[in-house]
Specification:
The protein is mainly α. The chain is built from 20 helices and no strands. The protein has a single domain, classed as Hypothetical protein af1432 (Orthogonal Bundle), CATH 1.10.3210.10. The two termini are 42 Å apart. Mean pLDDT is 89; it is low at 1-28 and 89-95.
């Protein structure tokens, strides 16, 4: 983490500074207050937000969390997600999921759950759309490689990088760096954090040090992320031919819905059958998540957001469905993520990321001026920012520019 970024994070250590004071109820117009009248007491209310890092006039035609969502959608990092991949490298085909389509799927699932639980859909959507903004090119393979490169310089973790993007790296506004999002949105983006990093984050890191939970909305976005990527990885894996329907017969969650689809539509086959099965799996997971979470909320009866933070995790699957989902994840790990063709891609991605990192740290003059630091100690973090912001295609082009001599 660069000194510049570390200093930026230090500014957020106060739970509610004068520049980030929560808006009073009287400051919210009746129309905006009505937008949240349906929310449960344990939901996050935009009118009671812990505020932004830099003071701004309240929005006049939307809530604070709607403003966050809109800023995320208009950010440069969000647009780049179109060309950042999950499992398959971007050039392998235009039908596979990207980080952008994944984020949209997460937001759709999360909003469905949030509406049923009477919590804040706008906050859930903002967190869902922003949770992958800091991901590297080439999916988890790129992240692992960059973390390896940064091991002696504080490491690299995509949740912290997403926070860096919204706190500092985006350059859209005259008054501040980043997007100046609400505390609750930033908290939801930070899904994981080591204790060492949590100590540097002030108020944002307190829950990791004190064993507290994030908002219901953040918990929903977290589980929706798992639902989305497990099921679209099944779909993409079948589309690519790396896994087969026959292999999936050992996975109860798949086979139960596959047989149900064939029972209801005996003539269905091919891609239509796969889509129908995946659709039913997603529905099963969502319905179970809503039912189990509702039971947890009834059991613990949190009367406020603070009560949610003090409770155990409330958003969860039931025991049976959770076990079935675990079997599916293990199947994907063994048969898709460790497939030799995926491992070949991961190896190439690793070589590209490490090659770029080594070249740029060895000679920072190869970098754009904005990523060159006068302090050598800060240079590796700036290199990590530069690489993490790349799309798959741009990373490959940069590698070619640096290492491939054109044959004229």
């Amino acid at each position: 983490m660069s000194d510049t970024h570390r200093e930026t994070l230090k500014e957020s250590t106060g739970a509610a500074s004068a520049s980030a004071a929560p808006a009073s109820a009287s400051a919210v117009t009746p129309t905006l207050a009505a937008l949240e009248a349906h929310l449960a007491p344990y939901a996050a209310h935009a009118s009671q937000s812990r505020g932004r890092r830099y003071a701004e006039a309240p929005p006049s035609a939307r809530t604070e969390f709607q403003r966050d969502r809109d800023r995320i959608v208009h950010s440069t990092a969000f647009r780049r997600l179109e060309y950042k991949t999950q499992v398959f490298v971007n050039h392998e085909g235009d039908l596979f999921r990207t980080r952008l389509t994944h984020s949209l799927e997460v937001a759709q699932i999360a909003r469905s759950v949030a509406r049923n639980l009477r919590v804040n859909e706008d906050l859930v959507e903002a967190i869902s759309l922003a949770h992958d903004l800091g991901h590297t090119p080439f999916g988890h393979a790129g992240q692992d490689a960059l973390n390896e490169c940064m091991r002696e310089h504080g490491g690299f973790e995509h949740n912290l990088q997403s926070l860096a993007v919204v706190d500092d790296l985006e350059e859209h506004y005259g008054a501040f760096n980043g997007l100046n999002l609400c505390f609750e949105t930033r908290e939801g983006i930070l899904k994981h954090c080591s204790r060492e990093n949590a100590r540097r984050l002030g108020a944002l890191g307190e829950r990791f040090l004190e064993g507290l939970q994030p908002s219901i909305e953040a918990q929903i976005a977290n589980v929706a992320d798992e639902i989305a990527y497990n099921n679209h990885d099944v779909d993409d894996g079948l589309r690519s031919g790396l896994i087969t329907v026959g292999q999936l017969a050992e996975v109860e969650l798949w086979q139960t819905q596959y047989e149900a689809a064939l029972h209801d539509y005996p003539q269905i086959e091919g891609r239509r059958l796969i889509h129908e099965t995946v659709r039913r799996i997603i529905n099963t997971l969502i319905v179970d998540l809503i039912e189990t979470t509702t039971s947890n909320l009834n059991l613990h009866a949190p009367a406020s957001l603070d009560a949610v933070r003090a409770a155990p995790p409330l958003v969860a699957h039931g025991e049976t469905v959770a076990a079935q989902a675990t079997v599916l994840k293990r199947f994907l790990f063994k048969n898709l993520y460790r497939h030799y063709r995926v491992m070949r891609m991961a190896n190439k991605a690793r070589r590209v990321v490490i090659g770029l990192f080594d070249a740029f740290t060895d000679d920072p003059r190869l970098l754009p001026p904005s990523y060159q630091s006068p302090d050598p100690a800060n240079q590796p973090r700036l290199v990590a920012h530069y690489i993490a912001g790349m799309t798959d295609r741009y990373a490959l082009k940069e590698y070619q520019r640096l290492f491939v001599i054109a044959d004229n």
